[in-house]
Structure to design on (322 residues):
């Protein structure tokens, strides 16, 4: 009980200084991401279709549903990280002081936030939100559908460009339909480049899958043949075609480097994270919670170093060859 109260107090203090964005609606059962190793389902699907009842003293932070009774600092930090990754900045608590009613603890500064007098959050209001990880009283992160243990630091591949925060704006531009297959000229060219870039699953496995030299040659030819290029550009593009030069250049830089974001450093980090993930689960199953938290802490540090290396390989490493 003391451990749970300390964690809850820490959680309330943390959210005092955190501001949330408006949540986005989601469908009942969104499509699974091809690169994800864990399921992504809505809260509605998790509770009504799978028949799971969320008990008292549970938190719903980001995309993590988790028991406060055995919550570790590392898992809680991963839940916070998932808020931005899935555009789902939520923080709710099923209060044991109000029969399990959900309370919004964002900005909470005291226990009054979870008392019966505090406003309840209707469970149906949680239905659109995604759930990717569930942590029960045993403290082991699990897949919300299969209930199999998952490694929270490798549940989403860092080697797929859709998941890299630095490419979020470009990926959203591609998804928004800013360019399409039916476009002509440079817009069609950009669409084809982005389609190949984001939809080619082989890039995750084959470092030489992208013929960057050919793509770059096509781009340079378009730039050199300015008259032909402007003939097919619409009026808006023709007013400042140089702006598109910069965008193409950035896209080509990323595409040229992407097959090389893996190296010996990231490969070693992958192996170490896999071993630590297995160690964490083994220690949790033996009720060695402090040792398990230590293993997860070390894995988080390795994961941070791996992310830094990937970013370096993508943007800063001048020795890379496409």
């Amino acid at each position: 009980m003391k451990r749970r109260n300390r964690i809850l107090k820490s959680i309330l203090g943390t959210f005092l200084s955190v501001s949330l964005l408006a949540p986005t609606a989601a469908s009942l059962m969104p499509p699974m991401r091809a690169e994800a190793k864990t399921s992504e389902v809505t809260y509605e699907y998790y509770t009504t279709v799978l028949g799971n009842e969320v008990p008292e003293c549970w938190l719903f932070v980001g995309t993590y549903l988790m028991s406060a009774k055995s919550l570790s600092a590392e898992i809680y930090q991963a839940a916070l990280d998932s808020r931005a990754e899935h555009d789902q900045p939520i923080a709710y608590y099923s209060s044991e002081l109000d029969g399990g009613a959900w309370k919004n603890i964002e900005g909470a500064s005291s226990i009054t936030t979870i008392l019966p007098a505090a406003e309840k959050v209707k469970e149906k209001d949680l239905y659109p939100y995604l759930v990717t990880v569930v942590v029960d009283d045993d403290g082991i992160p699990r897949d919300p559908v299969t209930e199999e243990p998952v490694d929270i630091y490798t549940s989403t591949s860092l080697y797929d460009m859709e998941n890299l925060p630095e490419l979020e704006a470009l990926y959203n531009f591609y998804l928004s339909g800013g360019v399409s297959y039916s476009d002509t000229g440079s817009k069609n060219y950009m669409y084809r480049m982005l389609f190949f870039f984001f939809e080619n699953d082989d890039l995750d496995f084959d470092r030489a899958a992208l013929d960057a030299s050919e793509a770059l040659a096509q781009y340079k030819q378009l730039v050199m043949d300015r008259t032909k290029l402007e003939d097919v550009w619409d009026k808006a593009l023709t007013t400042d075609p140089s702006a598109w030069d910069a965008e193409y250049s950035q896209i080509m830089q990323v595409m040229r480097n992407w097959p090389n974001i893996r190296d010996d450093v990231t490969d070693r980090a992958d192996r170490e994270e896999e071993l630590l993930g297995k160690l964490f689960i083994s220690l949790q199953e033996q009720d060695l919670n402090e040792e398990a938290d230590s293993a997860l802490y070390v894995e988080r540090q390795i994961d941070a170093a791996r992310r830094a290396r990937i970013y370096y390989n993508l943007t800063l490493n001048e020795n890379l060859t496409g």
